[in-house]
Design a protein that fits this description.
The protein is an alpha+beta fold. 41% of the residues lie in helices and 22% in strands. Strands 3-2-1-5-4 form a five-stranded mixed beta sheet. β4 and β5 form a beta hairpin. It holds the Pfam family GreA_GreB.
Length: 152
């Protein structure tokens, strides 16, 4: 996991523990004050929310405790590995794409971050600039040429 991914998970854990948890507890207390719990929709909704929040807190604590943080800025080389930011061009459409290879937890295609376990990242690992890679995508096979590798 990159330091940025670790920081994002830490912030979500802090927000869920220090803001969401007390808000949900207050909602449960307020719903309890309305009387009969067996027919109290607000109470059941708040308990459901509490369950989901506590589950996510446990999940985040587990991921953070097992995380191996790798500082990408201290990496270098001319082959693609975890943390690399790769610029490549689609050989069919000449469309340029830039992706950073990150851990599963922090992958977000909209931000240009792809999971280390994704088909495209697996095809890129170990390759160098000017290499051609073929990726089996849901829409069929795609070929890319690697233009640039950076560690930022």
């Amino acid at each position: 996991m990159t330091p940025a991914g670790y920081q994002a998970l830490s912030e979500e854990l802090k927000q869920r523990s220090s803001e969401e948890r007390p808000r949900i507890i207050a909602a449960i207390s307020e719903a309890r004050a309305h009387g009969d719990l067996s027919e109290n929709a607000e109470y059941h909704a708040a308990k459901e929310q509490q369950s989901l929040n506590e589950g996510r807190i446990s999940e985040l604590e587990d991921k953070l405790s097992r995380a191996e943080v790798i500082d990408v800025t201290k990496m270098s080389g001319n082959t693609i590995k975890f943390g690399a930011t790769v610029t490549m061009v689609d050989e069919d459409t000449d469309e340029e794409k830039t992706y950073q290879i990150v851990g599963d937890v922090e992958a977000d295609l909209k931000k240009g971050k792809i999971s280390l376990s994704s088909p495209i990242a697996r095809a890129l690992i170990g390759k160098q600039v000017e290499d051609s890679v073929e990726v089996m995508a849901p829409g069929g096979s795609k070929s890319y040429e690697i233009l640039e590798i950076k560690y930022i």
